[in-house]
Amino acid sequence: MSESATPATPVTFPSAFLWGSATSAYQIEGAVREGGRTPSIWDTFSHTPGKTLGGEHGDIAVDHYHRFRDDVALMADLGLTAYRFSVSWPRVQPTGRGPAVQVGLDFYRRLVDELLAHGIKPAVTLYHWDLPQELEDAGGWPERDTAFRFAEYAQIVGEALGDRVEQWITLNEPWCSAFLGYGSGVHAPGRTDPEASLRAAHHLNLAHGLGTTALRSVMPARNSIAISLNSAVVRPVSQSPADLAAAQRIDDLANGVFHGPILHGAYSQSLLAATAQVTDWSYVLDGDLGAIHQPLDALGLNYYTPALVSAADEQRTGARADGHGASEHSPWPGADDVEFHQTPGERTEMGWTIDPTGLRDLIMRYTREAPGLPLYITENGAAYDDKPDAEGRVHDPERIAYLHGHLAAVRGAIAEGADVRGYYLWSLMDNFEWAYGYGKRFGAVYVDYATQARTPKSSALWYREAARTGTLPEVPGH
Question: Which residues of this protein are catalytic (predicted)?
Answer without folding.
Answer: 379 (nucleophile)
